[in-house]
């Protein structure tokens, strides 16, 4: 919003701006989304004072100060005043009580100066209307109270200097631009520090996730060794079964072969599950590596950091799911081993029964007489 060159800021501070609800006349409605610059402006040609505040390109305060206006402090950090011309009540919320007190003192000072004004006219005898004859246009306002106040003496000296010169000096413009650059630099540094902290947190989470995946991989290797031992034990049982086939009857052999086939199928199923789990772990590690590369390349992008956090959460859930599946696989392997041991025991029992049967047949009287 660009103001007329004859209007110059004489005091600037920051505050949250509110307006009274035009319907209820009781509730406050926020006019600004954040704390914005609120400034006193002096018009040297009209000898008038205004309070102006702009957010973006929208003027949210345009209030001409008259001798009858009163600024009321309603709480420790909040104050208000009524503007009959705008037909509204403005409210300001400050960061500290000291900022509110300075604004009140400046309001009283400007109001006293307005009382000394013989009348508001535009030089042609017609009443002055700040909205009709002096429109407000969007322009950057001074956003630092300390930098403006440090360049002022008292209010009357400032008014006299502005009324005689009509334009800000080069020194004032340079200080004004310098203050704006300082504010932009401070905000940029704060945002960079915030993103740096978020990026470091994300990297720490990635490191913990990598450690968990490595531990899971180590567990998979251990389970592979156990599975190899089970296979070896199964081979021994198969060999024993082949030996039993030479002495056992056909029915018993058929039953043992069926049990052996089922056990072999169970082992194959366990091996397939293990291969599937190993592949999922490899995929998770690959995605993690891709994620780390993306984090390093886009560490200062806040939106991308949030996406990475979501992806990390998904990976954590995936790791938890994989660990659960691995535990189930281990339980299934233990169960299979137990079944193999039971099968081995059953085969031993059957073998003993067959041996006893042969012994009985060898000592049977009828067989002995026939041999004789």
Q: How would you characterize the largest beta sheet?
A: 8 strands, antiparallel
Helix content: 55-70%
Q: Tell me the fraction of residues in β-strands, as a range.
A: 5-15%
Shape: rod-shaped
Query: How many H/I helices?
Result: 7
Number of strands: 8
Structural class determined from secondary elements: alpha+beta
Average pLDDT, all residues = 78
CATH class of the domain at 9-116: Mainly Beta
Weakly predicted, low-confidence segments: 119-168
How would you name the CATH homologous superfamily of the domain at 9-116?
Pleckstrin-homology domain (PH domain)/Phosphotyrosine-binding domain (PTB)
The radius of gyration computed from the alpha-carbon positions, rounded to a whole number of angstroms, is: 44 Å
* H/E element order: EEEEEEEEHHHHHHH
Distance between the termini: 130 Å
The fold-level CATH name of the domain at 9-116 is PH-domain like
Based on the structure given, which CATH architecture of the domain at 9-116 is correct? Roll
Provide a compact summary of the structure.
This protein has 372 residues and is α+β, with helices and mostly antiparallel strands.
Description of the molecule:
It is found in: Cytoplasm; Postsynaptic density. Residues 143-154 have a biased composition (Low complexity). Its main location: cytoplasm. Residues 178-339 form a coiled coil. Residues 2-114 form the WH1 domain. The protein is α+β, with helices and mostly antiparallel strands. The protein has a domain at 9-116: Pleckstrin-homology domain (PH domain)/Phosphotyrosine-binding domain (PTB) (PH-domain like, Roll), CATH 2.30.29. Helix content is 61%, strand content 15%. The protein is built from 7 helices and 8 strands. It has helices spanning 97-115, 145-149, 155-165, 170-245, 250-297, 302-362, 365-371, and strands at residues 7-20, 28-30, 36-43, 48-55, 58-64, 71-73, 78-83, 88-93. Strands 1, 2, 3, 4, 5, 6, 7 and 8 form an 8-stranded antiparallel sheet that branches. Strand 1 and strand 2 form a beta hairpin. Helix 4 packs parallel to helix 6 and helix 5 (250-297) runs antiparallel to helix 6 (302-362). The longest helix has 76 residues, at 170-245. Mean pLDDT is 78; it is low at 119-168.
